[in-house]
Amino acid sequence: MGLFSSSSPAPSPQSPKPTPDGAFIAPDRSARDRCYEARDAFFACLDRAGIVDSIKESDAAGRECGGLEKGMGRECAASWAKYFKQRRVMEWKKQKAYEKLAADGAEGMPEGMAIPSGLPTQSSRTSK
Fold first, then answer.
1. How far is 51 from 119, CA to CA, in rounded Å?
2. DSSP class per residue in 56-116
3. Model pTM greater than 0.85?
4. Of 14, 16, 42, 102, whose CB count within 10 A is highest?
5. Angle formed by the axes of helices 78-103 and 29-49, nearest 10°
6. Residue predicted with more confidence, 53 or 18
7. Which residues lie closer than 8 Å to 40 by C-beta, 6 or more apart?
8. Nearest to 88 by CA among 46, 117, 30
9. Chain centre distance of CA 2
């Protein structure tokens, strides 16, 4: 195949396959498992390097864990990889907020305490 060949390159093994109506087929269980394993390996490397936000600290993340980040990019859809990175930061911020509340002496709500009217309950959010 020449440099200016008219044939299109073969899709990568991870490329989603379109259905006849144009939608894409979701990854199967084994593809999801490979994605999760690649994500977990990348995040473990970030933990060892002390990096929380691999998007804002992309230079440091690339230097410390670039190969594993590329592995996650190969195994996961780009939207999944972005979501995982954003969720990691959100979970870290949530944990820090809980730790600050505990340090400030905050206590959990007592069981059975009524939720003020007009606010959604857990059951109303999950039943839709």
1. 37
2. TTHHHHHHHHHHHHHHHHHHS-HHHHHHHHHHHHHHHHHHHHHHHHHHTT--PPPTTPPPP
3. no
4. 42
5. 50
6. 53
7. none
8. 46
9. 39
